[in-house]
Design goal:
The chain is of the alpha/beta class. It has three domains: about 20-70, Alpha-Beta Plaits (2-Layer Sandwich); about 75-140 and about 170-265 and about 310-350, Rossmann fold; about 370-420, Electron transport complex subunit B, putative Fe-S cluster (3-methyladenine DNA Glycosylase II, Chain A, domain 3). The chain has helices at about 30-35, 60-65, 105-110, 120-140, 150-160, 175-190, 205-215, 230-240, 255, 265, 280-290, 320-330, 370-385, 400-405, 415-420; strands at about 20, 40-45, 45-50, 70, 85-90, 115-120, 145, 195-200, 225, 275, 300-305. A four-stranded parallel β-sheet has the order 6-5-8-9, sandwiched between helices. Strands 7-11-10 form a three-stranded parallel β-sheet. Strand 8 (about 195-200), helix 7 (about 205-215) and strand 9 form a beta-alpha-beta unit. The longest helix is centred in the N-terminal third of the chain and has 18 residues, at about 120-140. The chain is globular and about 70 Å long. The N and C termini lie far apart (about 70 Å). Keywords: 4Fe-4S, Iron, Iron-sulfur, Metal-binding. Pfam families: Fe_hyd_lg_C, Fer4_10, FeS. This is 4Fe-4S binding protein.
Length: about 425
C-alpha cells in the first residue's frame, strides 16, 4: 500500500481547537470560570488559553456571549484538494433538519454538494458496538469500562485522572473506523490512494483536534474536518433541489442513536450502565470513580456536550430539539444493526493502534522534590487568599492564582486583586 501523505490544512494555532478574537473579547471571565481544566486566564482585559490544558470541550465557545471564541475546522474550499472525496456524516447531523423523514435525503444532498461517496459514521458505530460487546466479555479491560467515543473525555482522563486510563475502551472512534473502512474499500476498487480525501463533518472542536492529531491511531485516517454548521447551510438548498433520492443509508437505529446521550450504552445491551452528559456531570462521575465508587457498574458512557453529540458547539440546532428528532428517526429505522461478521472483521480490526499518552500538564516540576517544595509554597500562598474564587485576579480560583505565582505565570509579588480593593 502506498504511503499516505498527511496534509494538515489548519495552522498550528488553529490546531488548538479554539481560537480567540481579541477584538470581541471583553474580559468578562465567564469562560475562565467554567473551563473544566482551568486552562483560561484573563490578563490585560483579554482571555488567553493554556492550550496544553485544553480538552476541546467547547464550553468556552458555548458560554461566550460576545462570540469571541471560535472553534477551529477546515474550510469548505478544501473540497478541491482531492479528486475522489468521501464524506463521513455523523449521526448528530440528521437532528439539525426540521421535518426530516428520510435520512437518504441528507446523504443524497451531500453527493449533490460535490462528494463522490458517503459512508455513515453511524454504520461504523454499529461495528464498534459489536466489538465492544466482545471486548466486554473477553477483552480484560478494567470495569467499569469507560467509553472513548468522546475525545474531550479521553483528553480529560489522560490529563487529570491517570488512574482511570486502564478503564478506557480501547476501540477506534466510529469516525476513525468509518474512515479506515471507506478508504480501504475505495483503494480495493482501484482508486489511487493519493486521489482519496476523507472528510468528516464534525459537531465539536474536540473531534477536530482528535482527528487531526490521530487519537489512538498511527496516522490520521481523516484528511479534512468540516463543521456541521457549514454543511447545514449548504445542505438545506441542495436537499430542496433534489429530484431523485437514491437509497444510500445502511445504518440502523442503533448507529443513529449514538448521536444522543445513552445511545452507545443502550447499544451494548448491558444492564448495569451509566450515561452522563455535560462536562460538569462527567467530572462528577470521574471523581466518584477515582474515589473507588461505581464498582457495580459495567459500562460508563460520558459525553462532554449536553445531550451528547447533538449538543456540540458546531451544530446549529438546540440540542434538546435535535435529540428529539434523532429519537424519532431512530424509531423509524427498522433494519437490523450491522455486525462485524457482515464485513469479515473481528474486534482486533477496530482496536486502537496505540494507547493515548498520559499528559502531566498539572505537574509543578519534573523534579519530585522541587514539585513538593512548590506545592508547599502554593499551600502557604493559598492560606493568605480570601478563598472566594472571584476571578478578579485573572485566574479561575484562588488555588489557580497561587499556582500561577509559584510557576511564574504572573510576576512574583503580585497581590490578590480582591484584597487590594479592600
Amino acid at each position: 500500500m502506498a504511503e499516505r501523505k498527511i496534509k494538515c490544512v489548519l495552522d498550528e494555532k488553529a490546531l488548538h481547537t479554539v481560537t480567540l478574537d481579541p477584538d470581541k473579547c471583553v474580559g468578562c471571565v465567564t469562560c475562565m470560570k467554567r473551563c473544566p481544566t482551568e486552562a483560561i486566564r484573563v490578563r490585560g482585559g483579554k482571555a488567553s488559553v493554556a492550550y496544553e490544558r485544553c480538552i476541546g470541550c467547547g464550553e468556552c465557545v458555548r458560554l461566550c456571549r460576545h462570540h469571541a471564541k471560535l472553534p477551529a475546522h477546515d474550510s469548505w474550499d478544501t473540497l478541491g484538494d482531492f479528486r475522489y472525496k468521501i464524506v463521513l456524516p455523523p449521526p448528530s447531523l440528521y437532528g439539525q433538519f426540521n421535518n426530516l423523514e428520510d435520512i437518504d435525503i441528507v446523504l443524497n444532498g451531500l453527493l449533490a454538494l460535490g462528494f463522490d461517496e458517503v459512508y455513515e459514521v453511524g454504520q461504523a458505530a454499529e461495528y464498534i458496538t459489536d466489538a465492544t460487546r466482545a471486548l466486554m466479555q473477553y477483552g480484560g479491560i478494567e470495569k467499569p469500562i469507560i467509553s472513548t467515543a468522546c475525545p474531550a473525555i479521553v483528553e480529560l482522563i489522560m490529563m487529570r485522572y491517570h488512574n482511570l486510563a486502564g478503564h478506557l475502551l480501547n476501540t477506534l472512534a466510529p469516525v476513525d473506523a468509518a474512515a479506515k473502512l471507506a478508504r480501504e474499500a475505495a483503494i480495493a476498487r482501484g482508486i489511487p490512494e493519493e486521489d482519496i480525501g476523507v472528510y468528516f463533518i464534525s459537531p465539536c472542536p474536540a473531534k477536530v483536534f482528535a482527528l487531526k492529531m490521530g487519537l489512538g491511531v498511527e496516522k490520521p485516517y481523516v484528511d479534512r474536518v468540516l463543521s456541521v454548521s457549514d454543511a447545514y447551510m449548504r445542505l438545506v438548498p441542495a436537499m430542496a433541489a433534489l429530484t431523485d433520492i437514491k437509497k444510500l443509508s445502511r445504518m440502523s437505529g442503533t448507529g443513529l442513536s449514538w448521536g444522543i446521550s445513552r445511545g452507545e450504552a443502550n447499544a451494548t445491551e448491558e444492564l448495569k450502565t451509566i450515561a452522563a452528559d455535560g462536562i460538569e456531570q462527567c467530572v462528577a462521575i470521574l471523581e466518584a470513580l477515582e474515589d473507588g465508587g461505581m464498582q457495580d457498574i459495567n459500562f460508563i458512557e460520558l459525553n462532554a456536550c449536553v445531550s451528547g453529540c447533538v449538543g456540540g458547539v458546531m451544530n446549529v440546532e438546540n440540542p434538546f430539539v435535535a435529540r428529539s428528532r434523532l429519537a424519532y428517526l431512530t424509531r423509524k429505522l427498522k433494519n437490523a444493526p450491522n455486525r462485524m461478521d457482515d464485513i469479515g472483521k473481528t474486534a482486533d480490526y477496530f482496536l486502537w493502534e496505540h494507547d493515548p499518552t498520559v499528559k502531566d500538564v498539572f505537574k509543578l516540576d519534573d523534579n519530585r522534590l522541587a514539585a513538593m517544595a512548590k506545592l508547599m509554597e502554593m499551600d502557604a500562598i493559598y492560606e493568605t487568599l480570601p478563598k472566594v474564587d472571584c476571578g478578579l485576579c485573572g485566574a479561575p480560583s484562588c488555588s489557580a492564582f497561587a499556582e500561577d505565582l509559584v510557576n511564574g505565570v504572573v510576576p512574583a509579588g503580585t497581590k490578590c486583586a480582591r484584597l487590594e480593593q479592600q
